[in-house]
Amino acid sequence: MKVVISGGGTGGHIYPALAVARGIKNRLPDTDILYVGTREGLENKIVPAAGFDFTTIDISGLNRSSILKASASLAKFPKSIFQSWSIIKQFQPDMVLGTGGYVSFPVVSAGTLFPGCRTFIHEQNAFPGIANRNLAKKVDCTMINFPEAARHLKAKNIKVTGLPVRQEIMEVDKGQAMSKLGLEGNTFTLLAFGGSKGAASINRAMFQLLQGYPINDIQIIWLTGDDAYEDIVKQMGDTTASPNKVMIKPFMNNIEDALAAADLAICRAGASTLSELAILGLPAILVPYPYAAESHQEKNARALIEKKAAEMVIDEFLDGDTLYKKLEELRKNKNGLQKMSLNMKKEARPDALNKILDIILK
After folding, report:
1. CA 274 to CA 5: how far, in whole Å?
2. I want to staple 144 with a disulfide (CB 3.0 to 4.6 A). Which of 105, 149, 225, 320 is the partner?
3. What is this structure's pTM?
4. 194 and 320 housed in the same domain
């Protein structure tokens, strides 16, 4: 069997695609898999390092900041369709899967035109992007993470599968994680993070919180992102003199330990992050990325707020005072926080990968 997989731009599209690719190889070792991405996206480094054949097309996301930039993005579209068709025609796949990102649209579109090829897409967000809203009408099956996404799609076939989560998240142990990180098991733990590059609003609010508010009996894991780390450490000075135990790092390769150790997170609302929180039942103060296409992170967050699984602060309104009040309100209400944790856990779909594999390999 031959399979083409496409998804790119961010890790949130790439890592689920790789999880599916590995799952296919585990079930059917002789399968040939070709990953189609772009030269500019993270997939250009991540996918070859994961050991999969990789090729690229020339396409960029729709830049909505001006008509001129949007026109330049659209001008690449016909070429990307032609390139995708050439790849599909030469590789002759039995199946094409798109996991999101602008690169997947022309690739999956070309797959729908190839005789005998089955096509699938996976939509991660509560509100589908424009590409997947169009593809859903054409592909054999649309798989979704949030059930709420179904009402925005006109599709031949929709299946709620959830989003594949890394095995490390599935297997992490809270007690062992606390020990690894040198944390006290009976102390409330806050995890603050904004992804590999960090989040300026979360970093600013955390700095204000630690510099200006009397937080006691709490330990903090603060992942600043690479760009902001050195400046924050200089400005913070000696955190060891604080009554709070504060661990500041640019990032963690073993972030699963931080997630398992935490009692509460403050973070963005990307689909992959939310799926990981759900697996661990970790309640969160969500700060949606304000520039996400069609405000999809805010819609993800609101889907969880409706289920009383999370709280939300809009990015521009986040500061130290707001964070302090939210943090104190939640950590002093143990029953409320426990209910949030249980509600978050209800959103977990630990069998997401197997569901996806069952559908596409049927």
Report:
1. 23
2. 149
3. 0.86
4. yes
Q: Are 179 and 293 part of one and the same domain?
A: yes
Q: Are 199 and 327 found together in one domain?
A: yes
Asked if residue 48 is part of any domain, the answer here is: yes
Provide the 10 A C-beta neighbour count for residue 347: 21
CATH code, domain carrying 258:
3.40.50.2000
Gap between the Cα atoms of 114 and 206, Å rounded:
52
Among 112, 132, 160, give the residue marking a domain's end: 160
Q: Are 235 and 207 in contact (CB under 8 A)?
A: yes
pLDDT tens per residue across all 362 residues of the chain: 999 999 987 778 898 999 999 999 999 999 999 999 998 888 989 999 999 999 999 876 554 444 444 445 545 678 889 999 999 999 999 999 999 888 999 999 999 999 999 999 999 999 998 889 999 999 999 999 999 999 999 998 999 999 999 889 999 999 999 999 999 988 999 999 997 677 999 999 999 999 988 888 899 999 999 889 999 998 887 554 454 589 999 989 899 999 999 999 999 999 999 999 999 999 999 999 998 877 899 999 999 999 999 999 999 999 999 999 999 999 999 999 999 999 999 999 999 999 999 999 98
Which whole-number Å values give the CA distances from 148 to 108, 209, 275, 302, in the listed order? 23, 35, 15, 11
The whole-angstrom separation of Cα 171 and Cα 180 is 15
Q: Which domain holds residue 148?
A: 2-160
Strands (E), the chain: 2-6, 32-37, 53-56, 95-98, 118-123, 141-144, 158-160, 188-193, 218-223, 245-249, 264-267, 284-286, 310-312
Q: Specify whether 132 is located in the same domain as 173.
A: no
